[in-house]
Amino acid sequence: MIGSLKQLQHLEVRFCEDLQEIISVNRADEVIPYFVFPQLTTLKLQDLPKLRCLYPGMHTLEWPALEILSMHRCDKLKIFTADLSQNNENDQLGIPAQQPPLPLEKV
């Protein structure tokens, strides 16, 4: 379904108390997913108290047209610049280290 969202321009998710991720992981995939939203200009997230990430696990995410990123009451979601070179190791259970929820490039 993600592939069909290439024309998506605005995404707003609000008032979902139990939502933990926007895109669910497909356990059948063994490659690192690559999500591109070339037309997305606005992303608004509001009142999502359990939201931790857009996608759990390692992935590549691009939204070259993004102009507005608005978050309100998404207390468990943290935005920070990713240094993926530090995320290559597994934790004690052998689970790959999780990528930052919203990796951003330094500008």
Layout of helices and strands:
Blueprint: E1 10-14, E2 34-36, E3 42-46, E4 60-62, E5 68-72, E6 79-81, E7 102-104
Quaternary status of these chains? single chain
Name the shape in a single word: globular
Order of helices and strands: EEEEEEE
Work out the helicity level: under 10%
- The average pLDDT score comes to 75
Number of strands: 7
Biggest sheet overview? 3 strands, parallel
Within the largest sheet, what's the order of strands? Answer: 1-3-5
Number of domains: 1
Pfam families: LRR_RPS2
Protein name: Disease resistance protein At4g27190-like leucine-rich repeats domain-containing protein
InterPro entries: At4g27190-like_LRR, LRR_dom_sf, Plant_NBS-LRR
Keywords: Plant defense
Please, could you describe this protein's structure?
It contains no helices and seven strands. The strands form three sheets. Strands 1-3-5 form a three-stranded parallel beta sheet, with no helix packed on it. Strands 2-4 form a two-stranded parallel sheet. The model is unreliable at 80-97 (pLDDT under 50). Helix content is 0%, strand content 25%. The chain has one domain (1-107). The chain is mainly beta.
Brief summary:
The protein has one domain.
